[in-house]
Amino acid sequence: MQKITLLIHCEDQPNIIASVTNFMASNDGNIVYIDQHVDREQNIFFMRLECEFDSDIFSLEDFKTLFNSTLAEQFKLDWKIFSAERKPKMALFISKYDHCLYDILGRYNSGELHLEIPFILSNHLDLKPIADSFNIPFYHVPVTKTTKQEAEQEQLKLLESHNIDFIVLARYMQIVSETLIDKYPNKIINIHHSFLPAFVGAKPYHSAYKRGVKIIGATSHYITEELDAGPIIEQDVAHVSHTHSIKDLIAKGRDLEKIVLSNAIKLHADRKVMVFNNKTVIFS
Amino acid sequence: MQKITLLIHCEDQPNIIASVTNFMASNDGNIVYIDQHVDREQNIFFMRLECEFDSDIFSLEDFKTLFNSTLAEQFKLDWKIFSAERKPKMALFISKYDHCLYDILGRYNSGELHLEIPFILSNHLDLKPIADSFNIPFYHVPVTKTTKQEAEQEQLKLLESHNIDFIVLARYMQIVSETLIDKYPNKIINIHHSFLPAFVGAKPYHSAYKRGVKIIGATSHYITEELDAGPIIEQDVAHVSHTHSIKDLIAKGRDLEKIVLSNAIKLHADRKVMVFNNKTVIFS
Amino acid sequence: MQKITLLIHCEDQPNIIASVTNFMASNDGNIVYIDQHVDREQNIFFMRLECEFDSDIFSLEDFKTLFNSTLAEQFKLDWKIFSAERKPKMALFISKYDHCLYDILGRYNSGELHLEIPFILSNHLDLKPIADSFNIPFYHVPVTKTTKQEAEQEQLKLLESHNIDFIVLARYMQIVSETLIDKYPNKIINIHHSFLPAFVGAKPYHSAYKRGVKIIGATSHYITEELDAGPIIEQDVAHVSHTHSIKDLIAKGRDLEKIVLSNAIKLHADRKVMVFNNKTVIFS
Amino acid sequence: MQKITLLIHCEDQPNIIASVTNFMASNDGNIVYIDQHVDREQNIFFMRLECEFDSDIFSLEDFKTLFNSTLAEQFKLDWKIFSAERKPKMALFISKYDHCLYDILGRYNSGELHLEIPFILSNHLDLKPIADSFNIPFYHVPVTKTTKQEAEQEQLKLLESHNIDFIVLARYMQIVSETLIDKYPNKIINIHHSFLPAFVGAKPYHSAYKRGVKIIGATSHYITEELDAGPIIEQDVAHVSHTHSIKDLIAKGRDLEKIVLSNAIKLHADRKVMVFNNKTVIFS
């Protein structure tokens, strides 16, 4: 049995659900999951569908060609088809904080994540021992003002040579370049340590402390050119009080950051996230 | 345009999604919502679908007859079809607590609930003024050991004469009879003031206090013959500490009870709840 | 037995806790509650203390005079002493939304709030029937561009003649004047329908929808001259998804608003909130 | 400067707060933290106090002797005094699950925990590499039916020779013996993977799935002789739905377990937990 995941969006129009399900049936596919959403404000239709085919006769490439020339053309679909067999490849960019790293690698080790991690990249050497202890290749790519462009070239080369599908900035602490963003649109996941859009930019816990909020948060989102303004994948919060110092907020925030980032990784790797007009549709 | 909601469940089997969507299309229906779930443990397929038809030519009764003799028979479906036009009728059973009552009636008044409340029934007169202030008929049906059966007969007569679709026990504080449960299976919603299955039965806040829990909860569920053991619709919790007295737990719990019960009412009234084998599938 | 609540803050300094507790003991008081907080950033000490005295010999006024001329002078205290006997008087300002109003009055009726509501004031007549059904005097003070100042004068007169201690804006939807804010500093509680500082100003649910956040919130805070920037008393949030329309966010938000506002009212009425430098210390 | 933490409980009685604070002042101590609680049901007074003394002249032993012969005797206090300098020593008992272990060691490494971990003990060898990578001594003490008593003796010897203050069962999966419980009363912290008292005993996620709950939880508590019935330190929950399989519940639960257990460890190590009559008072 071969399983595919289909993601589509298009202008909302009649008969689209029936047409797609019919197409699968007439190609001997058995739909095992279907979910859909209509954005009434923008009149956009979204659908996620999982379908099983007999491995002996099914060809993913032929199927894609057929789908493209028929349904995709008829309904002017924006579409993606993934084979369940192929695990997405994720590059992990880190700096000096280890809490997200431990959380991700712990889950990776236990088989909770359906993905591969071909390498970990950092601008510092501090966390190399952790990468080593999990037996994952570690690349040290320092970033300074003068070497920024070289570093970027090295990053791109690594990403390409490892066929990376998406990048996770696990508290990477560096602004990634437009070139990288353009090459990996809605494929670079960041964790920001505030409930966006509150406290954009640097030192959000300090700002939260100063404002005297009773709730702190963390937000995972896709990186876009505007700082901390990309499509939000997942957010969570924790209650705090006047008794919490900035250091306490940072400690409590770490727990949010690691869970929120790992959840976003899982959603993305399982092809459950669609992006349209800087917002996400999440079929969970 | 006439909109229907279809709820089905059956043994999981190939091609069911395509067959149902195809049926709708071939009857000139346009599917505007579809969601499905497969219980892999029990091998049961569940689906909720909303479909629009041209009011000029669509007949709900003819459609039901056709559906029943074709798809329903072919796949051995357990099915229900509701017209979106017809708001369900809800009877509200109360006793002396007013917090759930105010919450429900406030929402009802503001148009948040898609249902009708033909009457409120209570075994006490205390809350009649509230019913009056919202202009909803109030029936006083006292329940004592000796009059229990008469009271039940009066309840049944009221429910039938008002064509009641479902009953909400908004802290009614009385055990309802088997006769009532049999006549309204999975149609009597109760709010229990604990996170079930913890603290079944009377005085759960007292038990929670005694056990020293750090979290209290509330659970809305359908009434079945076994006490507090029916299918759970919605639950929520709140954090508490050693500083909370039993009175504090009761006060904090009231906020949970009213929100959880109102959410359950909305889900049921919008036909988003399916029950199978004492568990719910909730398409939200 | 007469119970007082003492709130103090001052520059942090040695021996202050022992001195205050000693003062109470040497005046035949028995401390039944004590909590304190030190803001290490600003080096400010905060304390809340409840103390019981023998009613036969205790005079609140004498006690205040003595406290003022001794401890308060010695430690340069900013202090307030309340008698537990005197319930604070709260004026309720409303407009056309009824969810917070019902929630507050339901709690008031059931004895959950330790305060008095001498009157409800609104710029519209829509909710007068609710005030009537709870037997609370209702004043209609319309506010238009031309009558704004007169309206304010009328408000002030009503507040003074009823000895109002604090004001609650239960979705009042009008910007209150500087005069009012100056007369009731940190005594006007507002409910803002977002998790501040995100989405300051009008239509926060529309902004939240547009940004695609996965969490919405509500914030109760004291009104200051800067819009939505006053000291935060309480916040809460709810998870949302792409399936929620703006209308859904508004409905879900109503549940947050009413609970968060009522909690803030309780904290303020129980003298558990201290304000310093635009932040709150909450002894709960 | 030397800082001590004092924990006391006793029958509630007048003047106790003033007497204790006075005692500290008259011994040249400066109170920097005080919190108290009265359990009105049981008439028990609890207090936690932090006090600073001049290191040059302060002797902890002399202070304890004086405190014991005066205040402790006068008020019949149950008391403990800890020096802030001495970090508590924690033994970590594990089995085959690594998520709690990674979480604890990650925090330990980053300096978030104020404690020492002299050793990790397990009945299996699987997780030894993790202990090694964090450079913490690992003892393999297998437990079988026939070797149970020997194993227990070995455990006790290790605990004593390392001067262990408290034990954490990080998903240890073995029932610990009465002997161990007696030697470490309210000093063995367990993590149970349900919101107790729901789903006591084995396989709580399976039971939760079967009951169809909409919320799962985790509970950290002190081990007592009755299974899963000891004093609760911390609990947290997560919302789930019909879409979650047992495997999903287990994965989601792991996130709860690790955060809840680590929080309990922090509270205990910071001497913020008091136990009385199978319930906890937590001064946070």
Automatic annotation (TrEMBL), chains A, B, C, D:
Catalyzes what?
A: (6R)-10-formyltetrahydrofolate + H2O = (6S)-5,6,7,8-tetrahydrofolate + formate + H(+)
Listed A to Z, the keywords are:
Hydrolase, One-carbon metabolism, Purine biosynthesis
- CDD domains per the UniProt record, alphabetical: ACT_F4HF-DF, FMT_core_Formyl-FH4-Hydrolase_C
Q: Which GO terms describe its molecular function?
A: formyltetrahydrofolate deformylase activity
Q: Describe which pathway this protein belongs to, using the record's wording.
A: Purine metabolism; IMP biosynthesis via de novo pathway; formate from 10-formyl-5,6,7,8-tetrahydrofolate: step 1/1
What does UniProt list as catalytic?
A: 228
NCBIfam families for the chain: PRK06027.1 (NF004684), PurU (TIGR00655)
Functional note: Catalyzes the hydrolysis of 10-formyltetrahydrofolate (formyl-FH4) to formate and tetrahydrofolate (FH4).
Q: What's the protein here called?
A: Formyltetrahydrofolate deformylase
What lineage does the source organism belong to?
Bacteria, Pseudomonadati, Bacteroidota, Flavobacteriia, Flavobacteriales
